[in-house]
Amino acid sequence: MMLPIYAAIALILAALVLLWQSNRTQKTAGLPGGRVIYTDTRAWGSKVESPLYDGMLGLTGKPDYLVEKNGRIIPVEVKTGRAPHGGAPYDSHIYQLAAYCLLVEKTMRTRPPYGIIHYENQTFAIDYTPALESALLDILAEMRRDERRAEIARSHDSQARCAHCGFRNTCDQKL
Fold it and tell me: pTM for the complete prediction?
């Protein structure tokens, strides 16, 4: 007689422990409250999703997470290092996040009000404003112009940056 009651209590306790662990994992990853609807990491044990793509812009991206919160979709980018000194994320990280916001708007037909950049020691909510979108579109246009030029001069002198560049295998200006 008492066995079903003990089993029910054990199941309730197990559910509470799993819920607590899930919330803790979500907070550690820098995710806001809400339902994770997309992930590009294996941290949650799920399959990696297909990239977001917009053919008109020629833009592809894979945010680390998309979280649905109050009917809005929030892109989250998780960085492995510490936040930069000075109290603001790197511009390149802001524009990467803005690109994810733009891709969410184009592919899911809903404009994110903001996105999140999470460093190991700090989290930033970045408003996705029309000014940020416009600056991103200007950068994309500049990148397309540079691609059409016959020769692109590299503008860096950092050995570490060069060693981790995605174009290193095809670059004739390696450091």
Answer: 0.69
Burial of 48 (0-12, 13-18, 19+ CB in 10 A): exposed
Give the integer Cα–Cα distance in Å for 132 and 94: 9
Record the tokens describing residue 58, joined without a space. Answer: 């020629």
CA 2 to mean position of chain CA atoms: 49
Residue 101 in tokens: 């916001």
165-171-175 Cα angle (round to 5): 70
pLDDT in tens, 57-99: 889 999 998 999 888 999 999 998 899 988 899 999 999 999 9
Q: Confirm whether 149 is domain-assigned.
A: no
User: Per the structure, how many domains does the chain have?
Assistant: 1
**84 lies in a domain?**
yes
What is the CATH classification number for the domain harbouring 121?
3.90.320.10
